[in-house]
Amino acid sequence: YDADGNLKGLLIEEQRSNVLSSSNFFGATNNVSVNTNALTAPDGTVSANELVENTVNSQHNTAHTYTQTGALTHSVFAKQGSGTRYLRMIDYNATDGGQGETYFNLRTGVVESGTGNIVSVGNGWYRCSISATTTATSNRYISLGNSVGSYAYTGDGSSSIYIWGAQTETGSFPTSYIPTINTTVTRNADVATIST
Q: pTM for the whole thing?
């Protein structure tokens, strides 16, 4: 299916692994609280997380740490919460620096700044993704931004975004979501045959 829900053909995907061991756990946080099971997620379950900024003058984010290196794609499903904050995603480590920094407008469904991609999945949810090439253990940050280019600011204590279903996979584009709970998961390659 395309972004408008039109059937485009058979989806055949290569083998991919979600190297994040808990794809819906956002525990490493900076100046945000996480309200779990706060909203219906894209899969129809009430399992989306709400990130709510505090009033500290600093960054407001959550991070996933991973050890996979090479060309990678990070993705997460996101929806606008209270207020008008942007979603900012970036891959960062001290060796490679910041990569893929992108500001997503979850009200309009567009990339405001950066090289990432945003795709509507319905009901106000978007799948947002960025790409990076790393040589060392790295962090993928999901941040709130009060304007494009601004991710360190004094929070208002109520602005929020909803997130669900994080994925980090080897490759230059995102494939369909691979849920993980306490361990990484590999999806085998799809194989299609035509019997003649």
A: 0.86
